[in-house]
Structures are given as C-alpha cells and as structure tokens.
Amino acid sequence: MNTIEVKELRRIYKTNIGVIRRKVKEIVAVDGITFDVNRGELFGLLGPNGAGKTTMIKMLTTLLIPTGGTAKILGYDVVDQANEIRSRIGFIFGGERGLYWRLSGIDNLRYFASLYHVDPEVTMKRIPQLLELVGLSDRGEEKVEGYSRGMKQRLHIARTLLHDPEILFLDEPTMGLDPVGGREIRQVIRDLQSEKKTILLTTHYMFEADALCERVAVIDQGRIVALDTPEALKQVVSDLSVIEIEVFGVPEEILNQIRNLPFVDTVSVEDLDQKQALHVHSAKGSEAIPPLLSALEGVRVGKVTVREPTLEDAYVRLVGGKV
Amino acid sequence: MKPGMMKAYVHVIKLTFIFTLKQSMTDAFILFGIFVQPLLIAIMALFILGDQGDGLVIFIVVGSGLTGLWDSVLFQSGNSITRERWTGTLEALVGMPTPLAVIVFGKNLAFVTQSLSSMIVAYAFASIIFGYPLSIEAPTLFIISVVMTVLSLVCLGLVLATLFVLNPDVQRWQNGLEFPVFILAGFLFPIAILPQWTTPLSYILAPYWAAVALHMSSGGKPDILEISVPWAMMALLGVLYLFLAFWLFRKMLFKARVDATLSGQ
C-alpha cells in the first residue's frame, strides 16, 4: 500500500456570472490526476499559479470534496474517512494566515497541540524542541503579530509537527519569503526528510523542487504533464541550450516574432525591476544569438549568455512557456 | 466516541476558553458591547425608572447586564466561525481531529462568561455613582440561574454561528435581531405589556427564561418550585439548541467542503 494513492482525481468549481441573467460557470481545477507517493518519499507538485496544486493538496487534506475520482491517505478515503486521516497528517498552506496573531508563538503551539489531542505534558516538552528546530527559540514568547513572514511560516511548520504526523503536506512553504528565509525553510524540510517523513510539497520554484524532491509531478491546467525524478525531467531539454538575453522593455510583437523563429523552441520572460530576461530555448546554442539579436533590433539589449538547461527549463518546455 | 476523548475535549474547551479571553481583552468592539453599551442602557433606564424604588433598580441592573449578554451571543458567538474564516484559521481548525463544534463551544463559553462582566459593571455603576443600596435577594438561586443562563446561551450561540455561515442573508439581519430580543425576552420590562401573540416567540428564546430566572432570584426570594420552571426551560431549550447545532454543523461543514468556502479567500 502506498502512503498516498490518487486515482483520476477531479475537482470542478462552480461560480455564478452575470447580474440579471445569472449563469453557472464551471472551472476545472484538477482534471483526472493519478499518482502515488511512497512511504518516506519527498514528492513535489510543480506548476504555474492556477495549475491546480493547492486544490489538489486541499482535497488530500480532507478540506475539499473531490468532484470525481478517489484519493486515499494511508488507505483511508479522503471523503468518507476524513477523521481517520486528520490525526495522521500535518499541513501548511503558504502565507501568513492561519495563526492567532494576538497570541504568542508558544500559546499558538499549546492551543493547536490540544486540538491534535497531544497530551499536555508531551506538549510542554515538544514545544521547545520544535521552536529549536524552526529557529524560533528566542522569540516564542512574543506575540505572532510582531513576527516577520518567514517567522510565521516557520511557526506554521512547528505547528504542523506538534502531533508527530506520518505525512506532511506543504503548500508553497517558501512563498513570498526572502532568500535567507526560503533557505531556512528548505533546511527544515531537509531535516524532516532525514526523519523519513512522507512529504508532499507544492511549489512553483523549480530550484526548490530540484533541490528537495525525489520525484516531481509537473501540473498544468489541472493535468499532470510529466512525472519523474528531477534528473529524468531535465532530459526533456537535454537537446536544448538556453540563451538568456537581458532587455529593457520588449514589445509583445517582437516577442511573438522570436517565438515564431524556426529554431526557437520556447520563450519565457522574467521581469527584473527595470529590465527583463528573455530565456530562449533552442537546439542551435550560441549560433542562435545573431538572428535573435536581429529580431530584437530597436530594443535596448544588455548581457547575453548561453547555458545548459535546468529543471526550470524542462518545466518551461512542459508547460509551454507559461511562467 | 473513543475512550479518553471526553477528557481531550474538556482540555480543548479549557484552552479555547483561556486563549479566546486573552485575545478578546484587547478588542475595542467587544469591550464596547460588554462595558459601554450596557452602561448607557443602565443610565437611561435609571434616569427614567430609578425613582420607582430600589426593587426596580436591581431589575434594571440585571436587565441591562442581560443586554450585554445577548449582544455577546449575537455578535461574538454568532460570528465565531465567520471570524475564523476571516483570519484564515478555519481551514486549520477543520483539518484537525477535534470537532469544530467543540472548539466553537469553548469560544462561545468564553464570550458569554466575559459578557457577565457587563452585569457587574452595571451593578457597580448603580451602586457607586447613583448610590442605590443593591442586594441580590437569593444569591444561591441567582448563581445557579447565571450558570444555567451561560450554558443555554452558549448552545444558542452554536446555532447562530452555523446559521450565519450557512445563510449569509440571515447575517445581514444580525443588527436587526438585537433590540427585538431585548424586548421579547423582557430584559427591561415584563413581556405582559406586549401583545399576546408575541408570547410564544418569547417562550422559545432561552434569553427570556434567563431573564425570568435572574430577575426572580435577584429581586425576590422565589421558592424552588417557582424558579425550577425557567431553569427547566433553559435546560430543555439548551438541549434542543444543541441537537439543532449538531445537525447544522454537519450540514455546514459538508457544504463548505463542497463549495470550497473554508478559506474565505
């Protein structure tokens, strides 16, 4: 038996549109997803915003009822046996919400431990250990409203470990954190991984999936477009090179021209304050630079580099440049 | 229920009670509803009716305290689930092994207990500022009545909390429910002066029986049989509210999981 078994899972949201003639519009968030996660595995769900990652994790944590398909956690059905699952899992959703800001970090942990039915004596021993683990030992008695975003996120992780769950669901745990905060959270996740916890992580940071996950499912528009180890996924783009071109304000029509060049596989644009970085995937490598610069005539161009593809590039190719 | 669960639930209720009080002590809206509004009502009533004897003054003190109690049930207990949704904690609470109803029970217990202080404030105000000699005629019966009041109103708060989530249209009428209950429950004057057709409405409200028991035990020395009637009615209505709340919680949680409305985003 796998720890997490997902078969043909579907979730449709219904929303009303119009004022006088109201119509029900259906949005397919998860469209027939199937995968398994093994005991002790760190499994990643990778996809752009709106791909269906959070919907997926909410169904697996019993907070949303699927429209179709089945999902089992430790053999328990997420719809009919939700109570059996809830005491065995821990979950965090990205962001700062979900804590009591007017209470201290320690009070938050004491309270959530009681909701998980952790013995009060065990709670009092475990809280200092968890605060140590997430690096909040010296701030535990302060009110959460004074915490930075990263500290709140670390407190969320401590909260989710109070009852020593077998499985952890971490939804975008480093979302919105500065590089230092993100690195600290990833270190905590690595520590948990070494304790053989089963972890399902969602992220849209490719380097994070690459650094942490044993297997990754790439999701786009509610469907899995690839599922493999990060190394195997990188093979998707092994035939390509990535040309990175720094530009200062590139019009959409020029971007479309570049996309239509015969030797260009995909193009993605990264906004960097005053400038943008074009990531052009091409099998031609450095030979593609002159025609690309010709296409960019009239646009102020900065640095141009060619590099080997990463998991991020594989991901961009799989989701068709939608990042 | 698994063995040992009751002990775990009691611990949850205790901590929910403590931490809810800790948080609400700094909330200006809550403090206004508990301290300022009952005080204003008490001042108004004391100026209008205060010269009609000390017996009426204790009626006013208890009655204005009851207005604070009802405000707490209506606005605090009634919004206890909605507030968790706004702060983003509802998903975390629902995803835990403790039933949400147990958590909300603890919260409502804190709100109703906290609002009892409005009665103490009104009492102190009438006694110190207006100089009325005030005494509770049957203190033991009064304390039992207070306990029965708290428990029955906590159960009513569970019903309101789920109704306000299930049907946001009802919540829009929340303010409109404040004064009609002041009147129907006879907080500041007897319901005998109201049209007769309103009497059945008063009878299904635990706040009415709370007012009867508290007025009876504070203003006189009723015999045990006499005061057993409002106590029994509070117990009966409390159990009925509890069953209704249990059903509504199941319905609400299932609907929220289908409609994806737990996160409030």
Give structural notes:
The longest helix of chain A is centred in the middle third of the chain and has 16 residues, at 179-194. Chain A has helices at residues 53-60, 82-86, 105-115, 120-133, 149-160, 179-194, 206-212, 230-234, 252-259, 289-295, 311-318; strands spanning 4-17, 23-37, 42-46, 68-73, 76-77, 89-93, 167-171, 198-203, 215-220, 223-228, 241-247, 264-272, 275-282, 301-307. The model of chain A has no long low-confidence stretch (mean pLDDT 89). Chain A contains 11 helices and 14 strands. Chain B has 265 residues and is mostly helical. Chain B has one domain (7-259). Chain B has helices at residues 5-24, 28-49, 54-77, 80-87, 90-94, 100-128, 139-166, 168-171, 178-184, 199-203, 206-219, 224-259. Chain B is globular, with a radius of gyration of 19 Å. The relative contact order of chain B is 0.14. Classes of the chains: A alpha/beta (323), B mainly alpha (265). Chain A binds chain B through residues 13, 58, 61-65, 83, 86-87, 91, 93, 95, 97-103, 107, 110-112, 114-117, 120, 159, and chain B through 5, 8, 11-12, 15-16, 19, 22-23, 26, 87-89, 91-98, 103, 254, 257-258, 260, 262-263.
